[in-house]
Amino acid sequence: MTAPTAALVELAVAHGVATEYWDWQGKHVQVSSEVVAAVLAALGVDASTPARAADALAEHRQARWRRVLPATVVMRAGWTPWFAVHLPHGSAAEVWLDLEDGGQRRDIPQQNKWVEPEWIDGIQVGEATYQLPGDLPLGYHRLCARIGTNPEISVGTVIVTPQKLEPQNLRRTWGWVLQLYSVRSRRSWGIGDLHDLADLAAWSANDLGAGFVLVNPLHAAETAGRMEPSPYLPASRRFGNPLYLRIEDIEEYGDLAPAERDRVRTLSLQTRALSEDATALDRDTVWAAKREALQLLFGVRPSIGRIAEYGAYCDREGQGLTDFATWAAISDLHGPEWSKWPEELRDPSSGPVVAFRNENPDAVEFHCWLQWQLDEQLARTQARAKSAGMSLGILHDLAVGVHPDGADAWALQRVLAAGIHVGAPPDAFNQQGQDWSQPPWRPDALADAGYAPWRDLVRGVIRHGGGLRIDHILGMFRLWWVTSTESPTEGTYVRYDHEALIGILVLEATRAGIVVVGEDLGTVEPWVRDYLKERGVLGTSVLWFERDADGRPLPPERWRELCLATVTTHDLPPTAGYLAGDHVDLRDRLGLLTRPVAEELAVDEAERDSWLNALRERHLLGNADGDVERIVEALHRYVAHTPAKLVGVALTDAVGERRTQNQPGTTDEYPNWRIPLGGPDGLPILIEDLPNNQRLRRLIGTLSI
């Protein structure tokens, strides 16, 4: 390993790239110059030699002087930030704001601040300083400047965000945490769908008093070839997965011709039989059947009202929907991996792509139509949850990133880093680190785009829900960029403008009236949780990880109030399996441990025993009580005793499931994201079975929320 030179360190710092960090064991780690150079290359900066690094640093220093206005200024309501205008030395500038609502502001005073001019490309460039007013309305505004008599107008973006997210409907409540695809009914086609979700929400609210249902990301997956099972490795985060559609709920179903309706019924009967299989889910078989049915429904001529509603949806989603549908249509012909398409189709703005769209309008429109159907069913699902009495309704989940060959990676190439993967450095539960294979946002490109890709993504996910969980929200502060396909330990952190990313999130959440939960587990810089609290973003507390400074179980009264509190997480086995040490056995079988299994089991047993002792000390569990069901109930009662605003209960815990849904660090070595909901006897549990499940009722009865 070669240590970075002083010049390389300075260049890295200028671009937010860490050259050193502290690992999960408190050890100081020096990042190699090779890793730093690789990360800078992904940011478009050539630091391959000392001379090129020096040139890149000089170019970086001059770049801001070449720009008349900053690309984006993000401010909070009430703030009065200064910004620079660069212009030929001695020239005058006219500066104003075009507001989001169509108004205009010209009260943008120049400040009495002298900055020495710089010679840039043979021209002496001056810097004038202006101040934005503190009473600007929330929203996205256009910053404009005209230099002297030049008719050309330079533009930037000003984003005004709330100081804090303050949802009106946030009161203490409990809700389910579940993987929707695994929660099936006798009417679903072998995969849990949006009608199942609406039914579960309505029953849980009316019968059990639940306030929300937190589901896995419902993001779009591949619609051609093998469907990626992980909801956290989607083709697109902005758009949804039509696998979750309930075919019979589509309005045009009633207008199918008799023969077509018979065919749909046959497909339904064939796939419903899959719900009796408790071993593994079969997305590909289900999607093949649903796609055939959806093609038949797409051919039904809708009413004039439906045509108008579909047109309005397409207008609202704009070019983003067109790009997504184009990717899907090309995938149907050439496969889902766009990096293997004919070269002329790899650029979404190329002439051949436009020609393909014009020559295949029905193929593209089919995928637009699928997204409209999803939008309608998501809206109905949230409406049913709210009308049943849920204070929040459906809480959606936002994955960290996207598949490198998916729709977003194709359509948003200009704002994603190529040749780099998002991951995580080693920690206690993933000692070899993690490579999530997802291309990260480029911080510089996001700012140049006025953060529009991030804004559009957030709007799409939260449109029909009462809340949003952000997976790995720490990635809005810094992300682990993996530079090697060999090992996720070969990487470093890259900084993001958290004030911009969190600010836009808070702005969109305020407008939608939802709550936001940040998954802030893992290696957390101390100030980050304070910042999220300041902005009104709830944290995440998982019982197994909540310990005090001495490593003892954290007493419930000391837990955070502004958080979602749970016993477990989807990256661990359900609690019955965790108590049995299944996670250690599984990681040992898969070769994921970095210390001897006996040592790992001893540490794990000591940690579990400490929690059992904490339960007994608080009289939540009898001294001789070793029954797994009683222990699971006691752990949930412990969480219910915390002040947490939201208490989540894994549906798997309620029915006694033991199998883990996901084992980080694996792909096909374990059937991740393919485990259907089952009971302790190994038999499948369907939604219709839940009202009479006494184990479930006993667990919920312990919460007293």
TrEMBL record:
In terms of domain of life, where is this protein from?
Bacteria
Residue span(s) of domain MalQ N-terminal beta-sandwich: 69-162
Entry annotated with the keyword Glycosyltransferase = yes
Name assigned to this protein: 4-alpha-glucanotransferase
| Pfam families noted in UniProt | Glyco_hydro_77 (PF02446), MalQ_N (PF21226)
Q: Does the keyword Transferase apply?
A: yes
What reactions does this protein catalyze? Transfers a segment of a (1->4)-alpha-D-glucan to a new position in an acceptor, which may be glucose or a (1->4)-alpha-D-glucan
Enzyme Commission number, as recorded: 2.4.1.25
What's this protein's family per the entry? Belongs to the disproportionating enzyme family.
Species source reads Kribbella alba
User: Which keywords are on file for this protein?
Assistant: Carbohydrate metabolism, Glycosyltransferase, Transferase
Which Gene3D superfamilies does UniProt cross-reference here? Glycosidases
Q: Which InterPro entries match?
A: GH, Glyco_hydro_77, MalQ_N
